[in-house]
Amino acid sequence: MNLPPNEPPNVKDPTTPYALMGGEPTVRALVKRFYELMDTLPEAYGIRKLHPADLSTSEDKLYLYLTGWLGGPQLYVEKFGHPRLRGRHLPFAIGGEEAKQWMLCMRQAMTECIANEILRDKLDKALTDLAEFMRNQAD
User: 18-133: which CATH topology?
Assistant: First the structure.
């Protein structure tokens, strides 16, 4: 997927990534596993320390956001308005290492939760672009 970094992958296609990956249960499992990995992998310490001790609010917001970004219901927008992701992340120092750690957790979660390898590869590219777009620190 060649997407602008803040845009969802191909939401106009009736066969959305959200539907292809199994909808709500898979997105929930993906986000839950992502935060479990972030919370336990020593290699993710840098990104973990940017989050609150209780990850439940972060988990909920990522679930809401990814649901819409993947082509499902626009739950995040309905609850909070436009995501303005980059602006919401500006208070946090996000450099190349943080983007790398975020993607480490997301890649492993996708491997464990999304069976379709082609879809995983496309999402990996789009999410890598998104993680890089969030960077606000030079390395």
Answer: Globin-like (1.10.490)
Alpha carbons 122 and 4: distance in angstroms, whole number? 14
Domain ranges of the chain: 18-133
Contact between 134 and 89 under an 8 Å Cβ cutoff? The reply is: yes
| C-alpha distances out from residue 7 to 28, 56, 84, Å | 20, 25, 11
| Helix, strand, coil share (%) of the chain residues, nearest 5 | 65, 0, 35
Q: What is the pTM of this model?
A: 0.87
Strands annotated E in 98-137: none
Give me the residue label for tokens 């020593």.
Answer: 42
Backbone angles phi, psi at 90, to 5 degrees: -60, -30
Burial class (CB in 10 A: 0-12, 13-18, 19+), 131: buried
Q: How confident is the model over 30-77, as pLDDT tens digits? A: 999 999 999 999 999 999 999 999 999 999 999 999 999 999 999 999
- Cβ–Cβ under 8 Å, residues 10 and 1: yes
* 27: nearest Cα among 118, 138, 136, 110: 110
